[in-house]
Write a structure and sequence with these properties.
The complex is a heterotrimer of chains A (255), B (65) and C (369). Chain A is 35% helix and 16% strand. With 255 residues, chain A is an alpha/beta fold. Chain A has a five-stranded parallel β-sheet. In chain A, strands 6-7-8 form a three-stranded parallel β-sheet. In chain A, strands 1-2 form a two-stranded antiparallel sheet. The mean pLDDT of chain A is 90. Chain B has one helix and five strands, in the order ββαβββ. Chain B has a five-stranded mixed β-sheet with strand order 2-1-5-3-4, with no helix packed on it. The relative contact order of chain B is 0.30. Chain C has 15 helices and nine strands. Chain C has an eight-stranded parallel β-barrel with strand order 1-2-3-4-5-6-7-8, surrounded by six helices. Classes of the chains: A alpha/beta (255), B mainly beta (65), C alpha/beta (369). The interface between A and B is medium-sized, with 34 and 22 residues. Strand 4 (40-47) of chain A pairs antiparallel with strand 5 (55-63) of chain B, so a sheet runs across the interface.
Chain lengths: 255, 65, 369
């Protein structure tokens, strides 16, 4: 089946995006990428910790995988823009996931700062994937600002609670012209399948894969779930039918 | 010479950015340098002199979602 | 991007073949879907769906109650000029018809306004023929400014204007635009509109979008049934409404289903929209577009209007005179644009709506400046 997702001129056959965070061992990352077939993976930028030794995460990511650097750690637009520019300068390419978090209890993204950063970075030629609190109005504004996709959260980061924001995400999927990637909160393959059944263009799963006992198998499980959900969406599921209870006919006047 | 490196005061013997990287035992291909708020490309590191009180950030890529 | 691009998708679509291939099972599936797509819309507009009318009507009713809560918005049309430079072959106001032409003076307009106001309905639809050189923007703008002192909500149904003109009108209190494409089939369009500014299909097609962009709160579109193949026309009109509804979330989109009845030109329509098919379209539109306003005018007779009220209708005209100066004049007034089939006055319409368990809305909002 020729079902290709396009973001910023790149084509993705596999609709599971993955992350590099929280793996027990970095050797697991390339194995997980292979088992899942994921074509895009997130990385983060940090100050070098001189005491901890400097291991390069990029060594573990095969060259054909699209790198999606995130701006995690940014608390406002300026910091996110700064991180994005550094990432590009470091040869990361043009993809950037904007992640701006000021609220530290639930780690909710700051949509307002995210829009500002999106506008600036899109104008500089970045392919901007903003991570947002699901909101239709903000999504419209993000598209206006030049976002290449929008990434609404399913539920709080790392919470594994699934699609708590389902209704709003559905609205975004139906109304927004750019790809919609459900990011954060997806803890089980069934939840990833549910997002794809709704019509999401992709899902981004990190923690649920990396902290599994067997991340390599879990990556594959998520990939299969994403494919199943996508296929079901394309096959257009039948809806539950209401039983028509005949009271007085409404069209009886038509003879 | 005293500089601010990754947010803390640091005494360096190096004259240029490349030297600083080697001094810190880092692999140049894996790190990014922000020098006084500007990103300096790798090819310029050897020519880029360090001065007293410079603010230098050395960054690298780590795991993240 | 405008709807023109969207429309191109269907240019080579074989409507007859598709409509002919739809089975009863296809229809059943489509009408029970929570979110019907364009193929579901086609299925619901197909001849096969006629067998499922009752089910569609029930669903349409419950969706309408869910989204509109049984409210029916009432409006009154006011014709201020019947000068027209278009040659629409089907229209009573066509330039080819030798009828008395009239445009109201501002004093006369005010007189009409005062009479209409007494009915209690605060939603006004102001209409003109399309004669920009005679009764153009410079004539209508002061008229609308004057009317906006009396009516908190004013829609216009006039010659298509530029986006700038719509913005200007929005600033003086106009909040709605009604413009019918008449017929979406390009060839028929060209035959029906041989003369005048209206012969420009694209200019008209993009008109509702210009209104939505200008920030009107209501944009009402429609196909005039009788000119082209009714199922194809209904389909293209519905996807037009969907396009606008999706793209302009801050504008309410409404759809009318005018069918040609007797007009002064004695035009004989090539296509007929029977009552049964009318009801099918109405309910199919509601199932496809739950939030969109569905409008029925006094072109339809009283009995039919009453009967279709529970099937998805959310807007109705009342006490309509379609001749220029019709409210102030005696019964024998001017030549109407089309014949009125529901002659009940406003109190009669209001009591009918209430009797059927719906809530007539005479005034929806007032902008506080």
């Amino acid at each position: 089946m020729n079902d290709i997702l396009k973001i910023g001129g790149r084509e993705f056959k596999n609709k599971l995006f993955t992350g590099t965070g929280k793996f027990r061992s970095r050797e697991l990352i390339p194995k997980m990428l292979e088992s899942s077939g994921s074509e895009m993976i997130t990385v983060a930028l940090r100050r070098v910790d001189f005491d901890a030794g400097n291991e390069n995460i990029l060594e573990y990511i095969p060259k054909n995988i699209v790198l999606l650097p995130n701006t995690s750690g940014a608390r406002n637009c300026d910091e996110a823009v700064r991180i994005a520019r550094i990432a590009r300068e470091a040869g990361m390419g043009d993809f950037i996931k904007i992640e701006i978090i000021t609220e530290t209890k639930y780690l909710m993204p700051d949509n307002e700062e995210t829009i500002k950063a999106t506008r600036i970075l899109a104008a500089e030629g970045f392919i901007v994937l903003p991570y947002i609190m699901p909101d239709l109005t903000y999504s419209y504004k993000l598209v206006d600002a030049g976002a290449a996709a929008v990434m609404p959260l399913g539920s709080a980061i790392g919470s594994n609670r699934g699609l708590k924001m389902k209704e709003i995400i559905e609205m975004i999927i139906e109304n927004i012209d750019v790809p919609v990637v459900v990011d954060a909160g997806i803890g089980r393959p069934s939840q990833a399948a549910e997002a794809m059944e709704l019509g999401a263009d992709a899902v981004l799963v990190n923690t649920a894969i990396s902290i599994a006992d067997d991340p390599v198998s879990m990556g594959k499980a998520f990939s299969m779930a994403v494919q199943a959900g996508r296929l079901a969406y394309l096959a257009r599921m039948g809806e539950e039918s209401e039983t028509a209870n005949a009271s007085s006919p409404m069209t009886g006047f038509l003879r | 010479m005293n500089i601010v490196l990754n947010g803390t005061s640091y005494q360096t013997d190096s004259d240029d950015l490349y030297g600083l990287i080697i001094e810190k035992k880092l692999d140049p291909s894996t790190v990014v340098i922000e020098y006084n708020g500007r990103i300096i490309r790798k090819e310029f590191w050897k020519d880029h002199r360090i001065s007293e009180n410079d603010t230098i950030e050395i960054l690298n890529f780590v795991g993240g979602g | 991007m405008s709807f023109l691009h969207e429309l191109e998708k269907y240019e080579n679509f074989d409507f007859d073949k598709y409509f002919g291939s739809v089975t009863s099972g296809d229809v059943k599936k489509s009408i029970t879907k929570e979110k019907p797509g364009t193929y579901d819309l086609l299925n619901m507009l197909s001849p096969a769906a006629e067998a499922h009318l009752e089910e569609m009507a029930k669903r349409s009713h419950s969706l309408t109650m869910q989204y509109f809560g049984g409210t029916v918005s009432l409006y009154i049309p006011l014709y201020i000029s019947n000068y027209c430079s278009n040659g629409c072959v089907y229209c009573g106001f066509s330039a080819r018809n030798k009828i008395p032409r009239k445009m109201l003076s501002y004093e006369e307009i005010e007189k009409e306004a005062l009479i209409i106001k007494k009915t209690g309905i605060k939603h006004l639809l102001v209409l003109t023929g399309e004669a920009e050189e005679k009764a153009g923007f410079d004539y209508v703008k002061p008229a609308l400014e004057l009317l906006s002192k009396h009516f908190p909500s004013i829609s216009i149904e006039m010659f298509p204007m530029t986006a700038e003109q719509y913005s200007e009108l929005k600033d003086i209190g106009v909040d709605g635009l009604t413009v019918y494409q008449e017929v979406y089939d390009r060839n028929i369009y060209a035959r029906m509109h041989p003369a005048g500014r209206k012969s420009d299909y694209d200019w008209r097609l993009e008109c509702p979008e210009r209104g939505a962009k200008a920030g009107f709160r209501l944009v009402n579109i429609g196909a005039l049934y009788g000119l082209g193949d009714v199922r194809k026309e209904a389909f293209l009109n519905a996807v037009h409404a969907k396009y606008l509804d999706d793209k302009y979330p801050d504008t309410e989109i409404a759809v009318s289903f005018p069918r040609i009845n007797h007009s002064e030109g004695n035009f004989k329509p090539d296509h007929i929209l029977p009552d049964r098919t009318f009801v099918q379209f109405l309910t199919a539109f509601r199932l496809f577009l739950p939030r969109v306003g569905l409008n029925v005018s006094t072109r339809e007779n009283a009995e039919f209007r009453d009967n279709i009220l529970p099937l998805g209708i959310t807007r109705m005209s009342a006490g309509s005179k379609t001749s220029v100066g019709g409210y102030a004049e005696s019964e024998e007034g001017g030549i109407p644009q089309f014949d009125i089939s529901d002659n009940r006055d406003v109190p009669e319409i209001i009591s009918m709506i209430k009797k059927r368990g719906f809530q007539p809305v005479l005034k929806d909002w007032e902008l506080i400046r």
